[in-house]
Amino acid sequence: MPQYATVGFSAATGAYPQKHEILSWERAQGVVEFEDQEAPLGFEDAMNREFDHNAGPRRYQIALGLASALLYRHEESEQSVIHRDIKSSNIMLDSDFNTKLGDFGLARLMDEDAGVKTTALAGTFGYMASEYISKGKASKASDVYSFGVVALEIACGRKSIQSNSDASLVARVWELYGADRVVDALECLVNVGLWCAHPVHTLRPSIRQALRVLKFEAHFPDLPKNMPPPNYNLVSLEEEPPLPPSAPHSLTFTSINAGC
């Protein structure tokens, strides 16, 4: 077992990985050791500096890898884990652009009967589902929303929001989708991204359903031409009472660009 391993990023330290001493090691999908080699490249850094904007297959590979890592955490590990902070700067890439999901500092275990017990709203604006912001309730659906935003970032080569625009990436891409201006080569990834980032959380897919479409094992979702408004009153199986108004908030602000 190596003494040091790269385990992820944090908004406080930027887009580059740090080395952390570990006391134990778990071999599982989405967890990887790095010994005597350069630290892996963050997707956000790759997109900014080294990523070829015409590298469609490579982008698709990254999206598939992220979906597979999230599927493991949601459905295939011994106990489901809600990440709560899926974003481009928490994606790690090795030299072959294989994807690893990092920074589980905000993650919570999922009780399938009672849902996630959280005491504070946490995450990054631009990647947080509207019902999570409104009710303070983390769920698989809110993780799927964050994945959808990242999928759109991968497809468009843009960040989820920017300081000089009121339009989010989700809103901008949905506008292009409604106008039939989505490039054919990106259609699958954009459709899945919008489906996962659907404002109504009960209409989002599970990460397994999204992965099946990405693998062309299922048909594209039938989405409305116009972006629907959020609906906080729809009941979910993972529903739990909202946090009290006095609950502390731990949010990360990022400086990101918008639009396709």
From TrEMBL:
Coiled coil: none annotated. GO terms for molecular function: ATP binding; protein kinase activity. Keywords: ATP-binding, Cell membrane, Glycoprotein, Membrane, Nucleotide-binding, Receptor, Signal, Transmembrane, Transmembrane helix. The keyword Nucleotide-binding applies. Residues 1-220 form the Protein kinase domain. One of its GO terms (biological process) is defense response to oomycetes. It is a single-pass type I membrane protein. One of its GO terms (cellular component) is plasma membrane. Residues 1-30 form the L-type lectin-like domain. Gene3D superfamilies: 2.60.120.200, Transferase(Phosphotransferase) domain 1. It is found in: Cell membrane. In the C-terminal section; belongs to the protein kinase superfamily. Ser/Thr protein kinase family. In the N-terminal section; belongs to the leguminous lectin family. This is L-type lectin-domain containing receptor kinase IX.1-like. It comes from Ziziphus jujuba var. spinosa.
